[in-house]
Amino acid sequence: MGVSVTxxxxxxxxxxxxGWEAANELVALFGFSGSGKTMTLQMIVxxxxxxxxxxxxxxxIYFDSSAAVDAKPQERRFGYVMQNPALFPxxxxxxxxxxxxxxxxxAMREKGVAEMISLFRLGHISQAYPDRISGGQKQRVALARAxxxxxxALMLDEPFPALDWPVRLKMQALVGKTRAEFDIPVVLVTxxxxxxxxxxxxxxxxxxGKVVQSxxxxxxxxxxxxxQVRRLLAAG
Length: 236
Known about the structure:
This protein has eight helices and eleven strands. The protein is α/β, with parallel strands linked by helices and 236 residues long.
């Protein structure tokens, strides 16, 4: 199973025109803020409609402008975690995780929640409310909620910059473990090349709404394709 996208979107003063594939690997979309990385994820998961293009996961097509296919976000089997975990403040950790699995029998939902709480080691805070847990714990809850449906792929939109570096390292390791556990592609948006080196199997470099280079982190670092990519590496 893999993710394949071609996306075009015209906004005032900005045009996104990208195409790439992610196999069963962790792919980092790397570039400066405003280069189109987050917009790409939003179009993949169905929050923003492309002007044209295609979004597919394996043989399942979620968007195809040429065939008038445009699946609703809840119909797309993608987990999605943002920088802001967006947990419901009036719900406990357990309830927030359960929210990711609507429309199923209670017994099945409870079984799924118990599995996620065990996998992400959240048992000791399962009855706590979001204002009583740390930033790292909130992101673990967000990951658990995104993965409880057993999605075809996981989309991570700069989920860790607000965390202290030691916590970020632990979360990066957890994502790697999670990818292996669920055996799915992970697409990570980041502008931090340290994060790319620590996590990614492959890097897709964005600049001004286009893909300007792709390859393994070591390859990008040792052989940047342009002065633009060298500036990105120096800044990241």
